[in-house]
C-alpha cells in the first residue's frame, strides 16, 4: 500500500501547476501510470494502456541491438515513450532506472513530462548500479551501505549522504547524476517533513547542495515551491533553464 501511495504522489507532484503553463496529464492516463512497472514487456504495457486508449498505435521510434524506444500514440495529442532493454531472454522489458516521457504534440514547444516509477523501485534499482558507489569508494565512503540504511529510514545515514553530496571530491559525471536522482527519490520516500527535518540540521552549504541536486534531477517543468515546500525552502536555489526531456537524444544503460 505504501508503494502505491508513493507512486501516486510521485506522478501527481509532476503535474503542471497552472492551466496557462501547460495542459495537465489526462485523468485517464494518470490513473494508469502507477500500473506500469519495471520488468513489464511491451505487450504488458499495451494491455494496461488499451483499457483507456483502445485505438492506441504503437511504433518503434529507435532501436539498437538490445534496446528499443517505443512510442505509444495514445491519441492525437499525447505520446508516451518508454525505453525497453533486452534482459537476455529475448524479451525486452522496462528498466527501473529509466523515466517515461509524455509528450503533448499539440503544444507549442512539445511539452514533455519525465515520469518516474515509484521511489521504492527506483531506489532498489540504484542499489544494483556501480558508478556512484565506485566514486564514493575513492573518497572512503561506503555509499551503498549508507543508501541501504537511508532507505530503512536511518537519519544518520541520510545526513551522511547529504554531506557527501556537498563535499565529495570525486563526486562527478555519471556518479553525480546518479546521486541527484537518488536524493530526489529519497525525498519522495521519506516525505517532505521527515526529509526536511534531517536536512535542516546541516549547514547552508550542504542544504543548498542537496536542494540543487534534487532540482537537477527534477523532470520538466521543474521543481515548484509548493512541491515538497519544507525541503524546497531550506537551501539557495541556483536556477538554470530547464529544457524538455528529449527521448531521442537519451539512451539508458
Throw out a few tags for this protein:
253 residues, alpha+beta, 2 domains, six-stranded antiparallel sheet, 11 helices, disordered C terminus
Protein architecture, described:
The chain is α+β, with helices and mostly antiparallel strands and 253 residues long. It folds into two domains: 2-118; 129-249. Helix content is 43%, strand content 14%. It contains eleven helices and six strands. The protein has helices at residues 2-13, 27-32, 42-49, 119-126, 131-138, 143-151, 155-167, 173-190, 192-199, 204-217, 229-232, and strands at 57-63, 67-73, 78-86, 92-94, 100-104, 111-115. Helix 6 crosses helix 7 (155-167) and helix 7 crosses helix 10 (204-217). The chain is globular, with a radius of gyration of 18 Å. The protein starts with a helix and ends in a 21-residue tail after the last helix.
Please outline what is shown here:
It contains eleven helices and six strands. It is α+β, with helices and mostly antiparallel strands.
Helix percent band: 40-55%
| Alpha plus pi helix count | 11
Rounded mean pLDDT score: 79
Low-confidence stretches: 1-23, 242-253
For the biggest sheet, the summary is: 6 strands, antiparallel
**Backbone shape:** globular
* Measured distance between first and last alpha carbons: 30 Å
Amino acid at each position: 500500500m505504501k508503494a502505491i501511495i508513493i507512486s501516486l504522489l510521485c506522478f501527481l507532484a509532476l503535474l503542471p501547476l497552472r492551466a496557462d503553463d501547460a495542459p495537465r496529464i489526462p485523468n485517464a492516463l494518470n490513473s494508469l501510470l502507477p500500473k506500469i512497472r519495471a520488468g513489464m514487456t511491451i505487450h504488458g504495457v499495451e494491455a494496461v494502456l488499451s483499457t483507456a486508449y483502445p485505438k492506441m498505435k504503437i511504433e518503434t521510434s529507435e532501436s539498437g541491438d538490445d534496446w528499443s524506444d517505443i512510442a505509444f500514440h495514445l491519441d492525437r495529442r499525447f505520446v508516451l515513450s518508454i525505453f525497453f532493454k533486452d534482459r537476455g531472454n529475448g524479451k525486452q522489458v522496462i528498466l527501473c532506472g529509466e523515466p517515461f516521457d509524455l509528450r503533448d504534440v499539440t503544444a507549442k514547444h512539445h511539452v514533455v513530462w519525465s515520469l518516474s516509477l515509484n521511489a521504492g523501485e527506483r531506489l532498489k534499482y540504484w542499489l544494483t548500479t556501480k558508478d556512484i558507489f565506485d566514486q564514493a569508494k575513492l573518497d572512503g565512503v561506503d555509499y551503498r551501505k549508507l543508501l541501504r540504511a537511508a532507505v530503512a529510514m536511518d537519519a544518520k545515514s541520510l545526513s551522511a549522504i547529504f554531506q557527501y553530496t556537498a563535499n565529495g571530491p570525486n563526486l562527478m559525471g555519471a556518479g553525480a547524476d546518479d546521486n541527484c536522482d537518488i536524493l530526489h527519490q529519497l525525498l519522495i520516500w521519506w516525505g517532505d517533513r521527515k526529509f526536511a527535518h534531517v536536512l535542516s540540521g546541516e549547514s547552508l552549504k550542504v542544504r543548498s547542495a542537496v536542494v540543487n541536486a534534487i532540482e537537477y534531477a527534477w523532470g520538466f517543468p521543474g521543481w515548484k515551491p509548493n512541491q515538497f515546500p519544507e525541503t524546497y525552502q531550506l537551501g539557495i536555489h541556483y536556477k538554470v533553464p530547464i529544457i524538455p526531456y528529449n527521448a531521442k537524444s537519451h539512451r539508458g544503460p
